[in-house]
Amino acid sequence: MSNTASLRERDASARKDRLLLAAMQVFAKDGFEKASLRQICLKARANLAAVKYYFGSKEGLYREVLVESHRRALAQESPVVMIPGEKPEITLRRWISFCLRFVLLKRASNPVIGQLMAHEMRQPTACLGEFLKLVVRPFHEELHRIIAAILRKPTVDAECTMLAHHIVGLCVHFDHGRAIIDRLGPPVPKTEADIEQLASGIADFVLHALTGLRRSAQQRAEKSPSLS
Questions:
Q1: Which pLDDT score, from 0 to 100, does residue 40 have?
Q2: Quick one: what percent of the chain has pLDDT higher than 90?
Q3: Residue range 92-118: average pLDDT?
Q4: pLDDT tens digits for 44-86?
Q5: Which CATH architecture has domain 80-223?
Q6: Other CB atoms closer than 10 Å to residue 84's CB: what's the count?
Q7: How far apart are CA 225 and CA 139, in angstroms?
């Protein structure tokens, strides 16, 4: 590759990166609908044609920002999956710890992510479906499988899915309700050690509930008349 071609390639890559950075800032501040492509291009020192060339449209640029910002944050953490031989109760503890570290540390260290999601929750865009499919669903589905294993169910069912929503709700509550929780006390954890302590408490609470559900299901099964 010639020096001129290499320089053009570096310039093109730098231009795309500038557009993404500017778009993150503007979309986080104004949301998708109110964000101005002209303002993004002005901040990025690029023209509107560059947006069309790299991303196809304003929606394509937003999709890249929404999905990739989360992917990059998640890539810094090892995915939580069930390990052969590991008790599902231990896997659940790791999952809860991962979830809390992401919402309380990763989002806090990268406020753009939290601001993007705040806009998305208030006014969902067409990109939400793709975001859920590529970013959220894989983590939720693994949680479903962990719950099914703890309950000793052969497959994931509607109960597992609903219980997963309960567990996620317990975790994200400390992010969404941060301003209120800090005033009511004790404050939302801000360090790894404090987050691990919170994760342990939530896991104890959840596992106690899941164990109770499993025991109740076993008792009902034992009382049911034999089909033979």
A1: 96
A2: 70
A3: 88
A4: 999 999 999 999 999 999 999 998 888 877 777 777 989 999 9
A5: Orthogonal Bundle (1.10)
A6: 4
A7: 39
> Could you tell me the end-to-end alpha-carbon distance of the chain, in angstroms, rounded to an integer?
76
- Rounded CA-CA distance 207/189 in Å is 21
pLDDT at 222: 87
Q: Are 195 and 104 in contact, with CB atoms under 8 Å apart?
A: yes
| Structure token digits, residue 191 | 């360090």
Distance CA 203, CA 201 (A): 5
For the chain, give the percent of residues with pLDDT over 70.
94
Q: What sections of 102-136 are H helices per DSSP?
A: 107-109, 111-122, 128-131
Q: Count how many Cα atoms sit within 13 Å of the Cα of residue 145 in the half-sphere of its side chain.
A: 13
Tokens found for residue 211: 């164990």
CA atoms within 13 A on the CB side of 156: 13
Residue carrying structure tokens 């010639």: 2
Domain extent listing, the chain = 3-56, 80-223
**Local structure of 55: helix, strand or coil:** helix
Q: What is the CATH code of the structural domain delimited by 3-56?
A: 1.10.10.60
Domain 3-56 identical in fold to domain 80-223: no
Burial 117-140 (b: 16+ CB within 10 A, else e): bebbeeeebebbeebeeebeeebe
